[in-house]
Design a protein that fits this description.
The protein is mostly helical. Helix content is 53%, strand content 7%. The protein is built from 8 helices and 5 strands; from the N terminus they run αααββααααβαββ.
């Protein structure tokens, strides 16, 4: 997505649904809130992952809900649409960053030659532009995260009944979300034989009718992939220029 998410999205934007619930303001829309509303919950300790339960089942299964959402055709399509929507903000931040870097280079190159008044004026310009840049980056991060959370919540509302149906149809008594890996999540290890993420993705793609994206997520510049093909943001959030005025 042309490095858009690398610039705008925080490093842990696609964190687990449980982590989102713990950090989201009360009443805000988040994938975790959608999970709580859409999936039956078994009594569990505070901080545990959401679970789907089937009293008649005997097997325990796992699902990476985060990956199921964003590796689905609909999830990939909507994240790509979001990235295009945010491209103007990326351009704005890049332009501002370039201007700030130019001022800092000018200060470092000419600072010793300027009189106190001229140097003080240039230092003030750098400081003001730095504050504006930092504020815009923070606002852009929050806006991008909120919109990504909205995508996840909307998809999960439709996917949750399908997860429960799959568990009931296949004899699962408990399905545990493994989006948040151990030690932050409760699951230390689970084998692939109990993971239902892929069949849920396939079933949801069929239900949604959204065609597969023209290009796989692995070919998108500036993005990595989570195991199984779910897109994730680049590991580094945007950083302010590090050169400091002398």
């Amino acid at each position: 997505m042309k490095r858009l998410l690398q610039l705008l999205l925080p490093a842990a934007l696609l964190v687990s649904l449980v982590a989102m619930a713990q950090t989201s303001p009360a009443g805000s829309s988040s994938p975790a809130n959608a999970t709580a509303a859409a999936l039956p919950s078994a009594p569990s300790a505070a901080g545990s992952s959401p679970v789907a339960t089937n009293p008649g089942g005997t097997k325990m299964g796992t699902i990476n809900i985060e990956r199921a959402i964003f590796a689905s055709n609909e999830g990939q399509r909507d994240v790509e649409t979001l990235s295009k929507k945010l491209e103007p903000k990326q351009t704005e931040l890049k332009t501002m960053n370039d201007e700030l870097e130019a001022l800092k280079k000018q200060l470092n190159a000419q600072g010793e030659k300027l009189n106190d008044e001229s140097r003080g004026t240039l230092v003030k310009q750098v400081e003001q532009k730095q504050k504006s840049f930092d504020r815009l980056v923070q606002d852009a991060r929050e806006d991008a995260q909120n919109q990504q959370n909205e995508i996840a919540s909307r998809i999960l509302q439709k996917m949750a009944p399908l997860i429960v149906k799959y568990a009931n149809d296949n004899g699962f008594g408990v399905i545990v979300d493994t989006s948040n890996p151990w030690p932050n999540g409760p699951v230390v290890w689970a084998g692939p034989s109990v993971d239902i993420t892929e069949p849920v993705i396939v079933a949801y793609n069929t239900q949604s009718g959204v065609p597969a994206p023209a290009k796989p997520a692995t070919a998108t510049p500036g993005l990595g992939t989570r195991p199984g093909g779910a897109p994730k943001p680049a590991t580094a959030p945007p950083k302010p220029p590090t050169t400091q005025p002398k």
